[in-house]
Amino acid sequence: xxxxxxxxxxxxxxxxxxxxxxxxxxxxxxxxxxxxxxxxxxxxxxxxxxxxxxxxxxxxxxxxxxxxxxxxxxxxxxxxxxxxxxxxxxxxxxxxxxxxxxxxxxxxxxxxxxxxxxxxxxxxxxxxxxxxxxxxxxxxxxxxxxxxxxxxxxxxxxxxxxxxxxxxxxxxxxxxxxxxxxxxxxxxxxxxxxxxxxxxxxxxxxxxxxxxxxxxxxxxxxxxxxxxxxxxxxxxxxxxxxxxxxxxxxxxxxxxxxxxxxxxxxxxxxxxxxxxxxxxxxxxxxxxxxxxxxxxxxxxxxxxxxxxxxxxxxxxxxxxxxxxxxxx
Amino acid sequence: xxxxxxxxxxxxxxxxxxxxxxxxxxxxxxxxxxxxxxxxxxxxxxxxxxxxxxxxxxxxxxxxxxxxxxxxxxxxxxxxxxxxxxxxxxxxxxxxxxxxxxxxxxxxxxxxxxxxxxxxxxxxxxxxxxxxxxxxxxxxxxxxxxxxxxxxxxxxxxxxxxxxxxxxxxxxxxxxxxxxxxxxxxxxxxxxxxxxxxxxxxxxxxxxxxxxxxxxxxxxxxxxxxxxxxxxxxxxxxxxxxxxxxxxxxxxxxxxxxxxxxxxxxxxxxxxxxxxxxxxxxxxxxxxxxxxxxxxxxxxxxxxxxxxxxxxxxxxxxxxxxxxxxxx
Amino acid sequence: xxxxxxxxxxxxxxxxxxxxxxxxxxxxxxxxxxxxxxxxxxxxxxxxxxxxxxxxxxxxxxxxxxxxxxxxxxxxxxxxxxxxxxxxxxxxxxxxxxxxxxxxxxxxxxxxxxxxxxxxxxxxxxxxxxxxxxxxxxxxxxxxxxxxxxxxxxxxxxxxxxxxxxxxxxxxxxxxxxxxxxxxxxxxxxxxxxxxxxxxxxxxxxxxxxxxxxxxxxxxxxxxxxxxxxxxxxxxxxxxxxxxxxxxxxxxxxxxxxxxxxxxxxxxxxxxxxxxxxxxxxxxxxxxxxxxxxxxxxxxxxxxxxxxxxxxxxxxxxxxxxxxxxxx
Amino acid sequence: xxxxxxxxxxxxxxxxxxxxxxxxxxxxxxxxxxxxxxxxxxxxxxxxxxxxxxxxxxxxxxxxxxxxxxxxxxxxxxxxxxxxxxxxxxxxxxxxxxxxxxxxxxxxxxxxxxxxxxxxxxxxxxxxxxxxxxxxxxxxxxxxxxxxxxxxxxxxxxxxxxxxxxxxxxxxxxxxxxxxxxxxxxxxxxxxxxxxxxxxxxxxxxxxxxxxxxxxxxxxxxxxxxxxxxxxxxxxxxxxxxxxxxxxxxxxxxxxxxxxxxxxxxxxxxxxxxxxxxxxxxxxxxxxxxxxxxxxxxxxxxxxxxxxxxxxxxxxxxxxxxxxxxxx
Amino acid sequence: xxxxxxxxxxxxxxxxxxxxxxxxxxxxxxxxxxxxxxxxxxxxxxxxxxxxxxxxxxxxxxxxxxxxxxxxxxxxxxxxxxxxxxxxxxxxxxxxxxxxxxxxxxxxxxxxxxxxxxxxxxxxxxxxxxxxxxxxxxxxxxxxxxxxxxxxxxxxxxxxxxxxxxxxxxxxxxxxxxxxxxxxxxxxxxxxxxxxxxxxxxxxxxxxxxxxxxxxxxxxxxxxxxxxxxxxxxxxxxxxxxxxxxxxxxxxxxxxxxxxxxxxxxxxxxxxxxxxxxxxxxxxxxxxxxxxxxxxxxxxxxxxxxxxxxxxxxxxxxxxxxxxxxxx
Amino acid sequence: xxxxxxxxxxxxxxxxxxxxxxxxxxxxxxxxxxxxxxxxxxxxxxxxxxxxxxxxxxxxxxxxxxxxxxxxxxxxxxxxxxxxxxxxxxxxxxxxxxxxxxxxxxxxxxxxxxxxxxxxxxxxxxxxxxxxxxxxxxxxxxxxxxxxxxxxxxxxxxxxxxxxxxxxxxxxxxxxxxxxxxxxxxxxxxxxxxxxxxxxxxxxxxxxxxxxxxxxxxxxxxxxxxxxxxxxxxxxxxxxxxxxxxxxxxxxxxxxxxxxxxxxxxxxxxxxxxxxxxxxxxxxxxxxxxxxxxxxxxxxxxxxxxxxxxxxxxxxxxxxxxxxxxxx
Lengths: 328, 328, 328, 328, 328, 328
Fold this sequence. Notes:
Chains A, B, C, D, E, F: One of its GO terms (biological process) is putrescine biosynthetic process from arginine, via agmatine. Six copies of one chain form a homohexamer. By secondary structure, chain A is of the alpha/beta class.
C-alpha cells in the first residue's frame, strides 16, 4: 500500500480522525503503559449537586484537544519562542476508568486503579473528570508503592472550597474532595485559589481548612497579590499535585460546567499560574474536572480545558528540560 | 386591598406565576395533605447509563404544565365534548422528595416516604422523575398499610425492558426497576409496551420477564394489535399502576431524555392507551420518568409530559365520575 | 409522620424543590404579607424593541436562585468573613403581577399594585422583570401613602439611557422609563451608569436627561473614575432606588437579554458598586430587568441575576445591622 | 463591467444573497407594486400568551425560503411532473409592516395598510406573522374598495380555535382572531382544521363558533374523514382566505412556535389540503403565523413554513393556469 | 495488575471510553486490516450548497454508536428474537480518510484509497460522510482489482436526486454523485427512493436519470407501493451498494443535516427496507452521509445514523449466516 | 397612498424590515454603484480547518446590524459626543459575491470582481466573510486601475498568523492569506495583532513573516505596549487595509467562529485600536471574517461584528470630516 497519497504523510486537519487526547495513541492495556504522560478519563458525575453532565467531560475535552492538532511536530508558541510537546514527550491516552452507575465507591476504586497504573509506569497522570469527587481516588492512588516522591502539596484552582466533611452521610461527593485530601498524611498542605461566593461549604469548613493547613485565596485576593506572591503560596521545593475545577474560570469562558459561579478567573491568570508552578515545582499529577459539554453549546469550555491541559503538560516537560522521566 | 384590578380575578396567563404543577397549591407539610391527586417530584438521576439530567425533570414538567393554565375552570376538550379536571378534582403539589447525591438508597427511601404520604392521605400519587430507578421506591410504597387495594398490575410504557437483575452489583439503576417490581408479591403482572431495539437488558432478561408474568409488546406489535387488543393485555378488574418512560415516544417529540430510541410511539397512540386504561381499570398510581429538560431545547418533551399527565389525571377522574375519593 | 428521614431535616440540594425565589415561602395573598423583603415577578415584555422573552425572566431568575440554596442557614462569604441573609431576614416570594397581553397600561397597573402591597407591608420591594418598562409602575408606586421615605435618588445600571420622551406615541416602552421617572416630583435625581453605544435614545434625550438632573456615566468613564468616585455620584444621605438592566453587563456573562451591547460591566464592578451603595445609602427598592432566559442557553445570565439579587439583599440588611424594619 | 464571470449568470447557491422571500425583488414603495404575489412581513407578537418571538418570523421564513433557490427557473416537482412558479409568476417582497411596540392597534393598522396596498395592486397578499392576532388586520383589509371579490370563506389550519370574544378587555390578542373574522359581514363561514387539546378558548367559545357558522375539525377527525371529505368542508365556488398557524403541525416538525401542541398534522396532510383547496377554490389571500425562529434551533419550522408558502403559491397559480391576474 | 476490579471485566457503560465506531478496535495501519466490516470516516463537506458541518459526521456517529454498547455480547432484538452482531462479526474502525481543505479532488482520492484498502482486505466498506459527494470516490473504488463482484446496483435512500451533470463547472459536489455513479460501466442501475420536493436537480436531471436506468420513487409513492413492491425495485440476484443520505428521513428525527426536506421517511420505513434488501441481495458496500452534528442539538440525528448502521450491518451478516467472508 | 400612517414616517424598530447591512439600500447592479461605502458579502468557507459555517456570516452580520437601527438619523455616541454615520455617508449593500461550491478559485475570483466594482465606484469596500481565505481576492483587487492609492500597509487583527505558504498543495485556505498578501508588491508591510497560542502556522511561518516585513504582536504584548505604542506599529502616512478575524476576540464575546482561541481581545481594546487607526491613517478597505452564526447561539458574535463595522465606518468618515469621497 505504498502507492497512494498517504505514503507522503497526512495533512491531518484538526477535524479529521479518532478523538483520543491530542490524537495521541490509545493504550487499552494498562499493563503495557510506556509513556511520559498518561491521560485517563474519569467520567463519573454522581457527586454533583446542581447540573450533572461531567460524565461526558473526557470525551468533550478529547475532541476539543484535536483542534490543536495541525499535523505539526510540536506546538510553537511565539510569545515564549518555544516549541512545546516535541515528539520526545510521549503522551498516551488510557481511555476511561470503568464507571458503575449508582455505585460511587466502585467507580472511585476503578479510577484509583487507573491512576496507580499510570504511576507504576512512571508516567505523569493527567485525569479528566468527571465531577470533582474523582479527585478523591486520584489522591488515594499516591499512598502506595506506585509513588515514591514523598509528601506533596496540592494546588487547587476552583470556585468552591470543597471542604465539607460530611452532610447527610455524604463524604465522597463533589463538595468533599479537599477535605478528604487534607486528611491524608502525605498531603503536606493546600493552596486553594479562586474560591468565591456562596457554596456548599459553610463557615465551619473554612475554619477547618485553615486549621488543616490550607491557604484560601479568592479571585480578587489573587489579583491584588499579583502572580509572584500567588506563586509563593505554593511552598518551594515540594512536589505539587494540581487539581483544576473548570468553574474556577469566569462563566464567560467556562459556562459548560455544573455549578457556574460569576467572578472567576480569566484565561491568562490561570495559564500564568500554571506556567509558574510548572517552572518552580515538580508536578506529580494533574486533574481537570467538571467540564460538562452538554452545557457548552459553543464548545468554549472544552476548548479551554484542552488548551490548559496541553499547555500545562508542555510547561511541565519544558521545565524538565524535555527529559521524559518522572522522578519527583 | 379591595380597590385594585385583582379583586375581579386574575387573567393568569400561562407564563405568569410560580411553577407548581398545573399552578396548583404547594403543600410542604405532607402530614396535612388533603387532596385527590398528590404530585411528587423525584429528582434523582444517579441511575442513568447515558445522559443524566432527569433531576431537572420535575421542574421542567411543572413549568410546562403552566402552558395549559389559561385561567379557565377545567379543561374543555372538544373532541370528547368533556371538561376535564373541574374544580372538584383537588390536585396539590407536594414538591420534591429529598435527594442525597452519591447515595442511591437514601434518595430512594425519601421518595418512598413521599409516596406513602400521598397514599396515606387517600390521594392518587403522581410521581415525576428523575430516572426510571425512582419507580423502585414508588412500587415499594404500596407494601404497607397506606395502600389497601390488593395486588395490582403494572402497565409500563417504555422503549426499554428495564428488567436487568444485577450487573456489577447494580440492582437499583434505571435498567432494573421492572425486575424489582416483578419480584413483589403484590404485583400480579406486567404489560410492557413500546419495547424496541438494543438496550441494557440482554436476551436472558426477556426470558426472565416472560417467566415472571410479563407480556412484552413492541411498538410495531402494538400497532398491529390495535388499541382494543392492546388494552386487553391489561387484565380487567385489576388495579393498575402506570409507569411511563418518556423514551417510549419517538425522539421526534421526546428528544429530551437520557437514552432516546428511534421508532417510538406517537402522541395519540399513548394518549388513547391511557384513556382506555383509565376507563377500564382503577388506576392507583402513576409515574412519568426520564424527562431531561436540558436536552430539550424546544421544550417539546416537557410539554408532552405535562400534556400526558394532565390528560391522564383528567381521564382517571372522569372515569370515576369526578368522584374524588381514591378507593381502588 | 415522625419516623422517616425528613424528621431530621432535608439536605435540600439546589436542584430539589419548587422554584420560588431563594426557595423562600410563596405568599399568594398580598394582604397578609409580613416580611422584610418581598420579591415580585413582573413578566411583561411588550415594551421591547428587539428580542422579547423577558416575560420568562421571573421564572428563570427564581430557578437560578435555587443554585445558591445548599440548605445552610445564611450565606457565608469568606472574602467579607460575613454570613449574609441569616434566618432573621425574612424574604417572601409574592409570585407574579397579573399581565394582560396587548394591554400595556393594565399590565403596568397590576405591577404597581404589587409594589404598593410590598411597601404597605413594610417590606423592601424587589421586582424581577420583564422588560425595563416595568420600572415605570414600580416608581409610580412610591407616590402614595404606602411609602413615606421622601424624595429619592435613582441609581440605574444599564447599557441604555432609556430616556426617550415619546416616539410614534410610545411613552411606556422599554426606552422610556428613566424619562418617566425623572418626571416624578419625588425623584430627586438619577445616576445612570454603564451607558454606551448606540441606542433608542437620540442626542436630544441625553441633553434632556442632563437638564432633568441626571448624571450619565459610561463603562469606561466609571472605570476611570474608580469605585469611590463612582459612589460619590450617588448623593449621600438620600434614599436610593436601584434599577438594574442586565444588559449593563458584558454580553460575555449576560447574553440572555433583549438588546445585548458589547463593552459592558464585569461582575465585580457592579457587585462592588451595589455593596458600596447599600453601605452608604438607604435602599428603598430594587428592580432587575431584561433577563430573557430563552436566549441564555448556558444559564449564565439567570445565575448572574440571582447572584446579584441575593448579594444585594444581603448587603442591604447587613448594612441595616440585620434590623429587619424598612424605615428609609 | 461585462468581462467578468457574472456576465454569464450566477450560480446563486441557496446560502448566497440577501434574504428576501424566495430571493425575489424587494419593493419598498408600495405605491409602485406590480406583481402577482406580494409578500408582507407582519412582525408583531404582542398578542402572545406563552412564548413570544414571532416578531422574527418574517425574517426566519425569508431566510429559509432561500434554501429552495438553486438558481433554476421554476421549481420542478417530479411527483406532480410539474414546474411550479415559472418566471411569469411575479412575486415581490414588500418588506415588513411598521410595528409600534406597546401599541397593538397602531401595529395592526400598519399591517392592514400593507394588505390593502397589495390588494390595490391586484396582487395576492401573502402575509408572514407575527402572532395570530395579525390575521385581524389582514381580514379587515378586505372590507373596502381594494377587494371586490365578494364574501369569502376562511380556512384556518391551527391547533387552537382562537375564538375568544373578550377576556380582561383583550379583543385583539392571538386568541381572538377567528372571532373577529366571523363578525365580519363579508366572511361567509369558517372551516377550522387541526383544533385539539386545551387552549385559551373555553367551552363557550366552541359553541359560539358553531353558532356563527364554523365547522370545527380536529386532527383525528380530519384523518378519519380523509382528504376528499375534508376538502368538502370548504364550500365550493366561494373565494377562500387561508390562515395557517404553524402550531397546527406536530411539534416534531414545528417546534419553533409560541404554544406548541402535541398531536398535530404531519407535512403531507396539510400540503395536500392546501393543494386541494387551491385547485377547487379561488384563493384570495394567505397568512402564515406564529413561526418563532428563536425556538427553532434546527431551522425545521422556518423551513416548513417556507416550503408550505412556496408550494401553496405554486399550487394557486398552477390552478390559475399560470395566469397572473387576481380576479376572484 | 491482576488484583483489581478490571480483572473480572468492565461494565463498560455507553458513556465510558474512546469513541470508535461501536467501541470497536481502531486500526490505523490499513495494510493490516483483518476484519469483516471496515468503518471509514470521510469528513469532507466542501460539496454542500446550504449548511456545511457534515465534516463532523464521522465523529458524531461514532459517539452516538457508543450508546448502543452496554457491554453485552451481541445485540438482542426481541422483535426478531435474534442476537445481531455476535462476537464473530469482526468490525474495525479505520479512522478517517485524510482531507485537504480547498482541494476536492485530493480529498476524494484519499477517500477512494481508504475504500480500496477495505475491499482489498475483504471487509465490507462502511463509510460515514461527509457530504454526499463522498459517494463519488466510494463508487470509484470498485473499478479495480480490489473488488471482483461484478456489476452492481445502487440503492440510494435520499430526499434529493443528486443527478446534476454539471453547473458552473461543478461535477463533484453533493448534487452530482448519482450522475457520476450512473456513468460507471460497472453500475448496472439505480433505485432512488425518498426523492421529493425542490432540489438542485432540475427537470432535465430527472429525465437523464430515467434514461440512464434509474427508478425514482418518492416517499408517498413508496408508501403506496408497500414494502414488498418497493423491494422489488431492486433487481434480484444482483450485488447492491447502499447509499443513505440522512435527509431521506423526516426532519423530525433527522434535523441535523445540511438540507433538511419535509415529508421524509420515518424510522421503520427505512429500517425494513434495509432489512429486506440485506435479506435478498448481497450488499457489497454502504455509505451514510450528510449527518451534521452541530445542527443536531438533541443528538437525534447521530443516534438515528448509528442505529441504522449497526442494524444494517447486523442484518447483512445475519443474512450471511454470520459467515464473515465478503463474497458477493 | 398618502392617507395612512406611513406618510409621517416609520418607527422602523430594529426587528422590522429586510436584513440588508444597516438596513441600507441593496444595489444588485454593481455597474450602478454610487456610494461612499459598499458592503459585500463573501460567503465562502471552504478554506476552514475546523468548524465551517462562515458562509452564513454575511447574513448573520447583516441581521445583527439591524439591531442598531432605531430609525434615528445617525448614531449618537455620548462618550465621544459625536453623531456618527449621518445621512451624508452613503452606505449600500452589494449583496454577496457568487460562490461556487468545490471551486475555491472561482469563488475567490467572484469576490475579487465585487471588490473591484466597489473600488471602481470610489466606494470604501467593506467585505464580510466567509473564512479568512476571502482576504486573498480582496487584496488582489487592489492590483489594478480600480485602485490608485499606492502601496498600503495591512493591519490584521486575528488570533492566528495565517502565514502558511503551502501544505499538501493548499495555498488559498484560511491559513494562507497573510502570506499571499505579503507577496504582493503593493503591500508595504503588515502589523499582525492578537496572535497567540498554537495554530496552523508553524515556527517557520513566524520567521518568514518577520522576514517579509511583518510585526507580530500578541494580546499580552499589545496590552503591555498600550494603545499609543500599538498604534505606532502602523506606519504613519500610509494607506491601511484592515482585516479583522473575529477570533481575535476572546471566545467569551465571539464564540461563533470556526477556530476559537482563548485569551483574545476584549471589546474596547479593538474598538480603540480601530478608532485610532481611522484617525491616523487613510483606511482604504476593510474585511471582517470568520463569523459563523450557527455557533453563536446567543447572537453575541454577530452583534459584535456589526457593532465593530458600523463603528469603524463611522470613525473613518468622521476622520474624513464626513467628506464622502474616497481619496486614499
